[in-house]
């Protein structure tokens, strides 16, 4: 684990992502932008989630404030949530054919552990030729390979938030050329934002068996995951007179969460008379079995076959306490008075809020918790089982023609999955404090005594959301690529992909049920009538790039890629009559790369034009306690610069840098909204894309001491100003984050690690409240609002033993 005596070697690594061919390519030889995160760099960063690992990738704006899963990545300015513009790969095969299935991001079905050796991240380029649903890039987590001798590692990590975690990996030859690998992890912790019950609990295990034959190779990999992770949502924030944004009084912005014991477990009444078991200890609970088979074989006349197959069965339950609306207690009672008027008994003189766990305690409208705020919290439960089968077949051959070489691939990709989807949500009333307490709305007489309870143990409305649907998706794609070596220094890469997707299924229609009380008077429920859908879409995309390697350690590249993203099953599964359209885009990049023993740099200028971006704007109406949907389409245009580099001036000191400057704007985003009965034109052309900063960078200096046995490094991140909505009416200020890590090699086999995350307890806001609307936020102009900061300061310590 000593410092690399050869200094900079980042551009010398072999690249396997977003290309196919008989020959191998190094990072220095690629004609597109790629970031490689090797084993040592990954361990020193020690990301706590898939999304967190992407912080060292230029051109990516990542949001990891939601916990270990359900992150957001926006690549090169594309304003798509979750993993809607990049695909997540494991060993070159999609973790999930569609990484953005609505409430089912691919990062929910994947966990990072010590079975992963390195990460390759392609931004734009040819990723959309080789993979479905990867218009802006592909993230490839590459597992460890077993060597010719037995080896392994064990790692135990503890954290100051109750974390205990064990990782292991062992690999060994097992006779007759076969190699066996096994690894995984288990961890349990309370979460940095402690809900007062175990937030993260579970793990995974994988077994791999592989053999290298004279004319090919074969491997089979099985992985089982059973893991629960907390879903962190926004918290109440306030703008101070000096412009600073802090959590409201009575709430800890770094460690607080609305979720707590009182919203941990609630039996929610449903419209059919049954009960929905809302268990927030489940968080995002994924049970997944995955089998991957890979087979390579040399055919006749120098042709080669490469086959990849993956089957997965994923059961996901996703529960969370969503802060739908925030208001003062006084304002809430004024609104509630109109809503409950017909349910008030005779003798009612007014309304009060009282605590469910202590009915004699009246909510102080002047200063409860120091803020006097009430939250209408959505207790949302989503169930999503998915069965998926993916297969990728490639035929490869390298040949000479006219003194030049062509490395050609013909590919066929097939994916089929079945998905069911059910959702049920109720509105609970809580106060605004860490581990919020439930409130009841009560009618009182002239003496201030309660005479009727209008809510049901804190539930203001049962069933404001209800969905029941299921569907199937089948994708067929044909693609080809050619790496044409024109001269020793010049190579031209080209490729094309034609893809077709069929989505079909049925969605149950909804009706409103009144069970006689205010809380049960407006429950959404199924009708027993299903609306079918069956749609087919197809599109052709292509890419053309060139790489001029004018010296072994220096070169330039350029690429142009018109590509697409077809509608997916989520486009219909809750909206069977919807008419989504294919999103198309043009991606361009020009780059320069250089490496030597002390220095490497990767600089890229990029251009992204994204067409027909769909905006489903879910707005929670605090008066009617319901969600409405605004649908819009627009184009975006982003021009930017990316920089990635490392400097090794001596064996004692080095520094790594990633930086992005971009100008992300909306094009053609206009729509008419009815306001007070009159049409109002909303024109957001030229506005900055939501939640995407113009400037961001990350600097990681480090020192190697004691002949390389001790490694110390710090990481400084800066994220520029962003906006919550397309109207740019709610600003998220710029912020910075300091982190640090250390490694000490006790011996050749044993190492100690220390990590400190967010050392200064930054309150950087990654998003506002999507429930307030992302076209034009209802929080515009509000002094108090909902937003989600990054996680507070945390420390971890690990010991690793290698053999």
Task: Describe how the helices and strands are arranged.
Blueprint: E1 14-15, E2 25-26, E3 33-37, H1 39-45, H2 50-53, E4 60-63, E5 72-75, E6 87-90, E7 93-94, E8 116-123, H3 127-130, E9 137-143, E10 151-159, E11 163-173, E12 178-189, E13 200-213, E14 216-229, E15 235-239, E16 245-247, E17 265-269, E18 275-279, E19 284-298, E20 304-328, H4 329-339, E21 350-355, E22 358-362, E23 373-401, E24 404-431, E25 439-444, E26 450-453, E27 459-485, E28 490-513, E29 523-551, E30 554-565, E31 583-595, E32 599-621, E33 626-650, E34 653-667, E35 670-675, E36 678-683, E37 695-705, E38 710-719, E39 722-723, E40 731-732, E41 735-745, E42 750-757, E43 765-767, E44 784-789, E45 794-802
What do these coordinates show?
The protein is mainly β. It has a single domain, classed as TonB-dependent receptor, beta-barrel domain (Maltoporin, Chain A, Beta Barrel). Helices cover 3% and strands 59% of the residues. The chain has four helices and 45 strands. The protein has a 22-stranded antiparallel beta barrel. The protein has a five-stranded mixed beta sheet with strand order 3-8-9-6-7. It has a four-stranded antiparallel beta sheet with strand order 16-15-44-43, with no helix packed on it. The longest helix is centred in the middle third of the chain and has 11 residues, at 329-339. This is Cyclic nucleotide-binding protein. One of its GO terms (molecular function) is siderophore uptake transmembrane transporter activity. It is a multi-pass membrane protein.
């Amino acid at each position: 684990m000593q410092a690399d005596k050869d200094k900079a070697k980042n551009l010398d690594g072999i690249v396997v992502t977003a290309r196919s061919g008989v020959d191998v390519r190094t990072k220095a030889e690629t004609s597109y932008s790629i970031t490689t995160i090797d084993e040592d760099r990954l361990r020193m960063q020690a990301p706590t989630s898939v999304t967190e690992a992407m912080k060292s990738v230029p051109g990516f704006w990542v949001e990891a404030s939601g916990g270990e899963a359900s992150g957001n990545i926006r690549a090169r300015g594309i304003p798509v949530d979750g993993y809607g513009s990049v695909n997540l790969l494991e060993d070159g095969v999609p973790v999930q054919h569609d990484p953005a299935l609505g409430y089912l991001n691919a990062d929910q079905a994947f966990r990072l552990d010590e079975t992963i050796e390195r990460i390759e991240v392609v931004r734009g380029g040819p990723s959309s030729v080789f993979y479905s649903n990867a218009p802006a890039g592909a993230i490839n987590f590459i597992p460890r390979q077993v060597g010719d001798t037995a080896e392994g590692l064990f790692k135990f990590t503890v954290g100051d938030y109750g974390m205990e975690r064990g990782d292991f990996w062992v690999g060994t030859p097992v006779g007759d050329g076969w190699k066996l690998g096994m690894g995984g992890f288990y961890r349990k912790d309370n979460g940095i934002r402690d809900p007062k019950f175990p937030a993260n609990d579970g793990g995974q295990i994988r077994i791999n068996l592989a053999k290298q034959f004279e004319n090919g190779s074969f491997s089979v990999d099985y992985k089982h995951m059973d893991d629960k992770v907390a879903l962190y949502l926004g918290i109440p924030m306030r703008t101070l007179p000096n412009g600073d944004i802090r959590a409201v009084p009575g709430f800890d912005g770094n460690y607080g969460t609305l979720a707590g014991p009182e919203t941990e477990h609630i039996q929610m009444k449903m419209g059919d008379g049954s009960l929905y078991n809302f268990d927030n200890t489940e968080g995002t609970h994924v049970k997944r079995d995955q089998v991957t088979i890979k087979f390579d074989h040399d055919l006749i006349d120098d042709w080669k076959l490469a086959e990849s197959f993956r089957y997965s069965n994923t059961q996901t339950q996703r529960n969370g306490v969503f802060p739908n609306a925030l208001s003062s207690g006084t304002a809430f009672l004024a609104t509630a008075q109109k809503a409950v008027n017909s349910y008030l008994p005779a003798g009612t003189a007014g309304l009060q809020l009282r605590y469910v766990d202590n009915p004699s305690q009246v909510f102080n409208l002047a200063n409860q918790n120091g803020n006097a705020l009430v939250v209408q919290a959505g207790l949302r439960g989503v169930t999503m089982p998915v069965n998926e089968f993916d297969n990728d077949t490639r035929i490869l051959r390298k040949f000479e023609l006219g003194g030049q070489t062509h490395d050609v691939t013909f590919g066929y990709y097939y994916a089929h999955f079945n998905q069911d989807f059910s959702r049920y949500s109720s509105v609970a009333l809580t106060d605004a404090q860490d581990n919020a307490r439930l409130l009841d709305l009560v009618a009182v007489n002239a003496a201030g005594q309660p005479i009727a309870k209008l809510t049901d143990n804190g539930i203001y409305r049962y069933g404001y959301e209800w969905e029941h649907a299921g569907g199937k998706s089948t994708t067929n794609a044909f693609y080809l690529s050619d790496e044409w070596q024109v001269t020793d220094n010049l190579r031209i890469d080209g490729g094309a992909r034609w893809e077709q997707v069929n989505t079909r299924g049925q969605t149950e229609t909804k009706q409103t049920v009144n069970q006689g009380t205010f809380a049960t008077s407006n429950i959404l429920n199924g009708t027993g009538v299903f609306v079918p859908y069956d749609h087919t879409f197809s599109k052709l995309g292509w890419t053309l790039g060139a790489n001029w390697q004018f010296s072994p350690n220096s070169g330039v590249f350029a690429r142009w890629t018109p590509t697409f993203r077809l509608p997916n099953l989520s486009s219909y599964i809750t909206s069977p009559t919807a008419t989504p359209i294919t999103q198309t885009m043009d991606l361009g990049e020009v780059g320069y790369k250089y490496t030597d023993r002390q220095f490497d740099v990767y600089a890229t200028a990029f251009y992204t034009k994204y067409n027909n971006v769909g905006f489903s704007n879910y707005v929670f109406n605090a008066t009617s306690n319901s969600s409405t949907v605004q649908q819009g389409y627009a184009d975006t245009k982003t021009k930017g610069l990316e920089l990635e580099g490392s400097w090794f001036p001596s064996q004692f000191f080095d520094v790594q840098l990633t930086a992005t400057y971009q100008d992300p704007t909306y094009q053609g985003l206009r729509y008419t909204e009815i306001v007070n009965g009159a049409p109002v034109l909303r024109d957001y052309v030229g506005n900055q894309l939501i939640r995407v900063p113009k400037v961001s960078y990350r600097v990681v200096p480090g020192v190697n001491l004691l002949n390389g046995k001790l490694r110390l490094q710090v990481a400084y991140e800066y994220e520029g100003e962003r906006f919550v909505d397309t109207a740019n009416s709610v600003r998220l200020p710029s912020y910075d984050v300091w982190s640090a890590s250390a490694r000490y090699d006790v011996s050749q086999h044993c190492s100690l690690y220390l990590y400190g995350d967010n050392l200064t307890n930054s309150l950087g806001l990654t998003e506002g409240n999507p429930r307030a609307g992302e076209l034009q936020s209802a929080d515009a102009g509000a002094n108090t609002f909902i937003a989600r900061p990054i996680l507070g300061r945390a420390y971890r310590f690990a010991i690793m033993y290698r053999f």
